[in-house]
Amino acid sequence: MSQNSQEIKRRRTFAIISHPDAGKTTLTEKLLLFGGAIHVAGAVKSNKIKKTATSDWMEIEKQRGISVATSVMAFDYADHKVNILDTPGHQDFAEDTYRTLTAVDSVIIVIDIAKGVEMQTRKLMEVCRMRKTPVIVFVNKMDRDGKDPFDLLDEIEEELKIKVRPLSWPIDMGQRFKGVYNIFEKKLNLYTPSKQYVTENIEFNDITHPDLEKHIGDTLAEKLRADIELIEGVYPEFDVETYLEGDIAPVFFGSALNNFGVKELLDCFIQVAPSPRPVQAVERVVDPEEDNFSGFIFKIHANMDPNHRSCIAFVKICSGRFERNANYKHVRFGKMMRFSSPTAFMAQKKEVVDEAYAGDIIGLPDTGNFKIGDTLTSGEELHFKGLPSFSPEMFKYIENADPMKAKQLNKGIEQLMDEGVAQLFTNQYNGRKIIGTVGQLQFEVIQYRLLHEYGAQCKWDPISLYKACWIESDNKTVMENFKKRKSQYMAIDKEGRDVYLADSPYVLTMAQNDFPEIKFHFTSEF
Ligand code: G4P
C-alpha cells in the first residue's frame, strides 16, 4: 500500500449533530479527552453560542472568534486520525451545519433520552439521507429518567426515517442506571454514578450465565435477557455494509457528562465508520486514493476584525495529498494558485502544515478568491457537487439606508452571499433584493457585517412569504404563462435560476394544481 493510501485509510472525518442541549458539546469534549487532545473537561464549552444570546450579537461575535480554532478538531486515537468537524450550536446557523455535512464521511447523532427526536435533528437527518451519509446514534443522558428505550428506537425509525440496530443496551436508567450491555463487544459495562466513568468492564459473551445476577441483581438480569432476546429477534443482525450505505444506524446508549459509554462508542466508531469515500464530481467519481490532489471549499469563515478583512476558506480534501507551496488550479478562475500558509487543526490549535491527505480539512487564508463550492485540483477540470440550497424560512427586503454607499452595499451583499451567509433573490417585478434566512440572527449578522466590513448601512423591509420554490418544466409555453401570471412573485436566485415566491401554503397548492406541468422544488438542485 502506498503511503498516501495508508494515510487516507486511517482517517475518520465526521460531525456530531444534535438538537441544541442534547449533549453535542459534552460528547465532543469527552472524545477529545480520549484522544489526548485536551486534558481538562470544560475546554470546549466556550465555543458554544449560548441559546440565550439571540439578541446579543456581540456575545455571539466573541464566541465566533474562538470557533475558527475549533472548527475542526483532530486527534490520533488507536492508529486512526480522527477529524471532528464542529457545527454551530445555534439553530439560526443551521445552513452552516448543512454545508459542513458535505465535508464529512459520517455522522454521529446525539439524542436526549428524555426529549427523543427533536426538530433540528430531523432536519439534519434529511441532509444525511440525501447524501446517504452513514449515521451512528448516541442516546445520551441515561443517568436521567427518560423514554422507554424500545419506544425511543421506534421513534427514531419513524421520525428520522432510518432503520436502527442497537449495539448496546441500557440496564435501567435515571438514578437506577446500572450500565449497558455492549452487544457489539459482548461486554457488560457497569456504572457507578459517583465515579464518573465506566467502573467495570466485564467480558460477557453469554448473558444467560448466572453471573449476570451477581452484577445487576435478579430483576434486572431477567429483564436484560428478555430485552436482548427481543432485540435479536426484532432487529436485523448488524451489518457494516448496510450501515455504510446509510440504510441502518447502529445505536449506543450512555451518558456523555459522566463519560459513560463514550469510549465504547469511539472504539466501535473507528472500527466501522468509513475512511474518506469516493466523491461525485460533475465530470466523474473521484476516488480518495487517486494520486492527484482535489478538494472543495465548504465553508468560509470571515475574520471579524474590520482592520484585517481576510477570511479562512475551509477545504475538504477529496483525493490525494495536498502540499504547501505547490501549484493548484482554482477551477472557477481557471488559474493556478500557490498556498504558502495552509493551516491544519490539531486538537484546538491551528498551525501551518506542509501536507495533508484526503479526508483532512485545511484552512486557506483568503482575501475574496473563494466561494462556497469552489474546486481546487492538481490541474484537472473538476467541479464537485455541493449541497443544494434549501428554501429559506424567513424573508426580508434589503434596502440601502445610506445613498452614498450603494456600491459598498452591493459588493457587501454579493460577498456575504458567496460566503453562504444567507440566500439572495431578486424580484423580477420590482427589482428589489430579498434576503432569505433560516433564522432571525442571520439578518443581524448581515446588517452588522455590512456596516463593519463594508461601511454600508442596510435596513430591512418586511415581506410576507412562505416558501421559495425553484421551478422547472419541459413545456416552455406553460413556463412563460406561469411567469406572466405570477409576475409579481417571480424572482431569480444568485445563479439566475427561476424562483417562485409563494406567500402562503394555500397559494402554493393552488399554483401546483393550476400548473400540473410545472415542477416545484424546495431545493435548488433537482
Ligand atoms: P449541546 O452542545 O448539544 O447544546 O449540549 P451540551 O453538551 O452543552 O449539553 C447540554 C446540557 O446537558 C449541559 O447542561 C450538559 O452538562 C448536560 N448534559 C450533557 N450530557 C449529559 C448527560 O449524560 N447527563 C446529564 N444529566 N446531563 C448531560 P447545562 O446545565 O446546560 O450546562 P452546564 O452548566 O452543565 O455546562
Question: How would you describe this structure to a colleague?
Answer:
- This protein is α+β, with helices and mostly antiparallel strands.
- Helices cover 28% and strands 29% of the residues.
- A hairpin with a 2-residue loop joins strand 19 (343-346) and strand 20 (349-352).
- Helix 11 (406-418) packs across helix 12 (440-454).
- The longest helix is centred in the middle third of the chain and has 17 residues, at 218-234.
- It is globular and about 80 Å long.
- Mean pLDDT is 87; it is low at 46-56.
- Guanosine-5',3'-tetraphosphate binds next to helix 2.
Side-by-side strand order of the widest sheet: 27-24-26-25-29-30-28-31
Fourth CATH level, the homologous superfamily of the largest domain: P-loop containing nucleotide triphosphate hydrolases
Ions and ligands:
guanosine-5',3'-tetraphosphate
CATH architectural grouping of the largest domain: 3-Layer(aba) Sandwich
Question: Which residue ranges are poorly predicted, with pLDDT under 50 across at least 5 consecutive positions?
Answer: 46-56
- CATH fold title of the largest domain: Rossmann fold
- What is the helix fraction of residues, given as a range? 25-40%
Strand elements, count = 31
Q: In one word, what is the shape?
A: globular
How is the biggest beta sheet arranged? Answer: 8 strands, antiparallel
Number of helices: 14
CATH class of the largest domain: Alpha Beta
Structural class: alpha+beta
- Number of domain modules: 3
Average pLDDT:
87
Separation of termini? Answer: 39 Å
